[in-house]
Amino acid sequence: MKRRIVGLAWAFALAGISVQSCANPASLGPGRAHDAGATEATPSFTDPSDGGKEAEVEPLRACIGTECPSPFATCPAIDDSRPGSRYKCDIDLSSDNENCGECGHVCPVFDQLNLLSQCTNGKCIAACQSQELKDCNDRIEDGCETDVTTDESNCGACGNVCPQGVACIAGVCGCLNGKIQCNGRCVDPQGDDKNCGGCGNVCTPPDGKAPPAHTRFGCVGGTCGQPKCIDDGNEKWTDCNGTMSDGCEINLLAPDPENCGQCSVACKADEQCRLFHGGYSCGCKSGLTECEHDAVHACTDLSTDLGHCGACNHDCPYVDMMQRPHQWPTCIDGVCGTACEPGWGDCNRTPADGCETNLLVSTGDCGACGHACDAAAGQPCINGVCLMVSCDAGETH
């Protein structure tokens, strides 16, 4: 008799119901569980369309499932590099690249063509290896042949043609935000010293004229010969008083308690202007702690920061994913620990070998360590749930 798959295993576990076989199927109808020797009335309801007569409700009954539900399967080993199934029904034929649609059907990869294939709904679907390369000629034999970041006939996407004379730059036809195209690059004509006001217009310092303090002459507002604040990575001067005639008076890459990281940002009496990640700042926001490492300060949450767990510079131990697979370090409430990736468990309670158990398919640890399916009956673990199927009253195996 045809059976429908139902996800009832967790309901059984929570209710304390143990289903051994379909010779004595479980009743999930309303009411308390059956005690040994007890009797209980079958639940009923009144059907208004039947003149108010009572109609019996057939209890929902479930049996242990033993056959792999689609699209799951148990696949044999192909070779040493493809060992096949470890557990019953542990291969998803709809998404497994080594067993796509059927056991042993491997989705190919063509590195020389920048092409791979991904198992989707049981079929190997061709896909390009990167977002920059596309198959714009619809010829699978030459793979993903078009670089959409620079191709003017396929700019950003296949078939997007740039206007004549307009280059494709970083997947965009032409330039945005007021920039102009010069020698295949987008530049700002308002401030570019080599393309000031237009392509190729190179600014040169005016003869016999010294720039104001902490400035140099360059392109400002599309005009050469204008003073501009020095910003070379080591120094970042700015004009805080809005008067360029006296130059740029504040270096934002130096500690200044009156202009800490920005003009007119003054630190409080109990604060210091210090170098934090991202620039100078007076201190940390409420709830964060200031920690120093290699002369750089950082605002951190000691309850979660792996590098400052519970205290500044207290590193949580590194986890070698090769030696301890599916496990990563954690900092919870300021205490270092480890955690398993979702779907994996450390069921042998030996952290040294990582999280070794796949809780989604393991029949001995299905969904949680120690939660075993009925292996003797051939019950598989499907997505972390021991397989149960619906069965009719009186059905037996």
Structural description of this entry:
By secondary structure, the chain is mainly β. Among the domains are: 56 residues, no CATH class; 58 residues, no CATH class; 77 residues, no CATH class; 76 residues, no CATH class. The protein has one helix and 31 strands. The strands form 14 sheets. A four-stranded antiparallel beta sheet has the order 1-31-5-2, with no helix packed on it. A hairpin with a 2-residue loop joins β17 and β18. The N terminus and C terminus are likely disordered.
Average pLDDT number = 82
Question: How far apart are the termini?
Answer: 11 Å
What is the percentage of strand-forming residues? 25-35%
Give the uncertain stretches in residue-range form: 1-46, 393-397
Q: Main beta sheet: strand number and arrangement?
A: 4 strands, antiparallel
Give the number of DSSP strands: 31
Based on Cα principal axes, name the global outline.
Answer: flat
User: Tally the helices: what do you get?
Assistant: 1
Query: Which structural class fits the helix and strand makeup?
Result: mainly beta
Strand order of the largest sheet: 1-31-5-2
Helix amount: under 10%
Q: How would you classify the quaternary structure?
A: single chain
